[in-house]
Design a protein that fits this description.
six-stranded mixed β-sheet, Beta-carbonic Anhydrase, Chain A, alpha/beta, homotetramer
Chain lengths: 216, 216, 216, 216
């Protein structure tokens, strides 16, 4: 690995030293307590890897508040305990069973490259994603049922609608996990669906009665 | 889903409105440009879901800088294009092929509940994780080779050593992805391994020459 | 003090700026009037310091409504004008004589760490609280008469019963203050005893006829 | 007590039922978890009883975040383990020793009736507070050293200056508690001094270098 792993670029080293001399130093007691007493996050957030959406910023959340899983297009696969490595399912299991979070929040967003890729793939415009060897394509298969639901909408609305379906399908799939459903039905946990419009800085919330997203 | 999905707790709604009236409003041109021009992150970060480690804080990273995948124990599985859903591999593929990030940073941390669970499982003290139906246990199987490397260390050092092995094994597994290796060997991308001591606010960096972690 | 007093953590600074840009700005006329015309609260609330019980939330109380004293286990000491510093008695005197509140509400709650400590101390299981130098133990001495009343109950009911006794004893002690008794007997003020079940979100109210707490 | 303790006024009963049907119901999982897992507040806040200053509002703090002691004029007495009932000292001891909070925040405010009373008393204009039987006067004796520091200021600035001295003196007195000083000096806790201008919705922060309060 000698030739592959490198020291951190100095702009990051510099920023880390700055953080340590300021934010860390001012909050040292809190970091120490987090280290000693463990984490007690109130909520799990399932969010996209996208560099433009950081949930800690939107909700002014400090270290210790949110247990955050991030993957392409904030997708949750259906429950499938087949012994394979399932990173998303493992994160959910840990949050619900070990940390006993009170909320699971699925946060989608506008201009999602993953969702746009799924749309292109399902429309037949992205054969490279259809290859069995494409991890991105295979992952986005999880969102195919969403494409079926939106494919008859006008083209200008379709990708946004699919971004929101990514949230709804994840909520639906969450409920296929027996321990999620049990916690929700026992009143020990609640699910929440959000969609963030990056350019407008707006959060829209899934209303399960009307089945539409409404601005908060 | 009517009875399972709920509106956001009002303390989060309030904080969001506060964020929108301040941070968003002050940075609206930037958010608009991020929405219109797409993301161009410089680095991908593979980090743990743990609520105590937010890489954006440590590196003062704003929206648009880091493409962030977070899973239990910041693990990368080996390359395995078997057509199954691989969330971590999809995120890596998207970052390297689509976004062409210049760096992939694996960030481990102290007091990692996932790593402690792996240690307990491999030591025979967590039979529930050994069950084939445990997503957490199955996921942590990825770190079993690390346990073999640290099991003869003194008990007080073993879990920390395993937290660092989680970083090293992820770096090793990254290099099993042909497109990762190709990008690194072409000089288009570099890999970096970090371990964060939460209580001390310290970053330690993997030195591939000496194969040990050194404080930055 | 230079090395002991620190700037506020930035997550709180950010939230304050968010509050100022939203809640404060929307309610500026009310805050200005509160500043200019002084406070005219309708009730005094004596509540516990516990982070899980905020009376303003339960009663939707805005700025200006409740004059709130919070101490460990919502205790009122007996009237004792010995010239020492009595914070609780001072708060009561100010509320009754200066603010002429119409109600004094004592609000106890479930899972009270202070009451559990008193129970342990009186049962001989917390010698550290029995030390004369323990402020917590000395303060909880005020609740010893309550322990006498509940000690023969089954163990599973005893701590809850003692939490409710903390309310009753405070009401009794309130009536030892001549100005409290005078205001009550003149019909200018009434006393109220409540106990909040945190997990169930239930308020129970002391019924002075039956001497038991009943759900509201 | 039959004739002294009354049922809650119906406007409060109504609001409680409304809260239970909405806020509680939406957040039931969180309240249950707080009940089951106990509180882990990050900070203790020492604030005034004044009905116009609710720290949870300013900082968007939900149940579980702040352990809050409220007394007249947010005063901390000096360390004095004489075996008497000291409610403020007990709250501090519990927060520091049992809850191991990372921050203690003293929050003063404008238009403080307690501080104005102290000013009048020390200026010889409030003989009733000078009576040994006045709990308010005896309590405000704690702020007499502050009066000495501000008495030569112009009259228009003096009361505001004394409100801020109430914060500074409380910080000084906090450091007379051996367990407070030990926690601060070990880096496990930090102290913070704030003053809230009610009408302007502004927080000012004590700068221990310059010894003045500055707007945040």
């Amino acid at each position: 690995m000698k030739e592959h792993v490198r020291p951190l670029p100095s702009y990051l080293t510099n920023r880390y030293h700055g953080w340590r001399a300021t934010t860390y130093t001012e909050n040292r007691p809190w970091y120490r307590r987090l280290a000693d007493a463990g984490q007690h996050p109130r909520a799990m957030v399932i969010s996209c890897c996208d560099s433009r959406v950081h949930v800690t910023s939107i909700f002014g959340a400090d270290e210790g508040e949110f247990f955050i899983h991030r993957n392409i297009a904030n997708l949750v696969p259906p429950y499938n305990p087949d012994g394979d490595h399932h990173g998303t399912s493992a994160a959910i299991e840990y949050a619900v069973r070990n940390l006993k979070v009170a909320h699971v929040i699925v946060l989608g967003h506008s201009q999602c490259g993953g969702v746009a890729g799924c749309h292109a793939m399902c429309s037949g415009h992205a054969p490279e994603l259809d290859e069995k060897t494409s991890f991105v394509g295979t992952w986005l298969d999880l969102l195919r049922p969403g494409f079926e639901r939106v494919k008859d909408k006008p083209e200008t609305e379709r990708v946004t609608a699919l971004e929101r379906e990514a949230v709804v399908i994840s909520l639906e799939n969450l409920l296929t996990f027996p321990f999620v459903r049990a916690a929700v039905e026992a009143g020990d946990m609640s699910l929440h669906g959000l969609w963030n419009d990056i350019g407008e800085g707006m959060l829209w919330q899934f209303n399960p009665e009307s089945k539409i997203f409404e601005p908060i």
